[in-house]
Recover the amino acids of this structure.
């Protein structure tokens, strides 16, 4: 890997600023080359979702759009991508140019992006997950794949670092699912494993109707415990990231998300009362915990932040 500067398409940077100010703020702890690469990766994820979601022709299907995406990805990796000159590119073309530079410079395996596209197909076609293993396969594709890409960008010094980061990303995705259970709308997908609902005697209909009864708290507590276990296992690998701001950026993102679980517990466990979110003073309180986690070495236990 070299430190040659990547293209700096303003549109790619602006996508991150528009869509997630939290991630955008944390990115400033990264060296400029890694920061621009991270913007490109996250903008490309957005482009993948858009390409698979949108249907321009009658009778178009998700599988057909997935095939078209695979063809375009092959062009990127084969160096056959043809784009207009920079002043004439639209937002999507700026993103394609940036990701083409990233995959060359950081040697990102193509399979990670294929897994991410498959996760989007699952989001559009799968409405129920019968078991935890089934849900974890989705989490690994939707969140783990992007974490493996980011591991390549951030730099690792241990063979297990990328997989630990993927586990951490699964925890963050599961946290997002729990925090969004009370949202109205969507396509009716139930992400929580049906085996968990059955065991804890909380029905699909109750979940869809946002019923806060005596069975809800044990169900949410069970899923929070599962998420925390993923956080702990994934956070073991933060010390294997490059010590150039990458560790702190990942540690801060992890701590901010795991603290959302504390908000759910304080409600208590009623995810339908309000969407769990951290207030500014709660976000500031995460800085010290993130710093401790980022400074941890592999021969020391995890700090008590999860």
């Amino acid at each position: 890997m070299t430190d040659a500067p990547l293209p700096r398409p303003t549109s790619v940077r602006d996508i991150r600023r528009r869509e997630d100010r939290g991630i955008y703020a944390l990115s400033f702890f990264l060296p400029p080359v890694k920061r621009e690469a991270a913007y490109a990766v996250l903008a490309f994820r957005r482009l993948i979702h858009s390409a698979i979601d949108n249907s321009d022709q009658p009778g178009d299907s998700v599988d057909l759009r997935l095939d078209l995406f695979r063809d375009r990805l092959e062009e990127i990796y084969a160096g056959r991508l043809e784009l207009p000159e920079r002043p004439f590119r639209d937002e999507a073309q700026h993103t394609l140019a940036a990701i083409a530079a990233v995959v060359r410079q950081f040697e990102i395996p193509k399979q990670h992006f294929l897994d991410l596209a498959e996760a989007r197909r699952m989001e559009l076609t799968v409405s129920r997950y019968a078991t935890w293993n089934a849900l974890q396969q989705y989490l690994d594709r939707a969140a783990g794949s992007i974490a493996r890409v980011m591991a390549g960008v951030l730099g690792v010094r241990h063979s297990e670092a990328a997989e630990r980061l993927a586990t951490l990303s699964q925890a963050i995705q599961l946290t997002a699912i729990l925090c969004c259970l009370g949202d109205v709308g969507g396509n009716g997908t139930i992400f929580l494993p049906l085996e968990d609902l059955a065991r804890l005697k909380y029905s699909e209909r109750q979940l869809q109707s946002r019923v806060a009864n005596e069975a809800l708290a044990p169900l949410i507590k069970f899923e929070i415990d599962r998420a925390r276990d993923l956080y702990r296992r994934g956070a073991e690998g933060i010390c294997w990231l490059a010590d150039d701001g990458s560790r702190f950026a990942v540690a801060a993102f992890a701590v901010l998300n795991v603290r959302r679980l504390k908000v759910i517990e304080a409600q208590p466990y009623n995810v339908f009362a309000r969407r769990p979110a951290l207030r500014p003073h709660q976000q500031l309180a995460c800085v010290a915990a993130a710093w401790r986690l980022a400074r941890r070495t592999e021969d020391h236990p995890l700090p008590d932040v999860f």
In short: The chain has a mean pLDDT of 91.
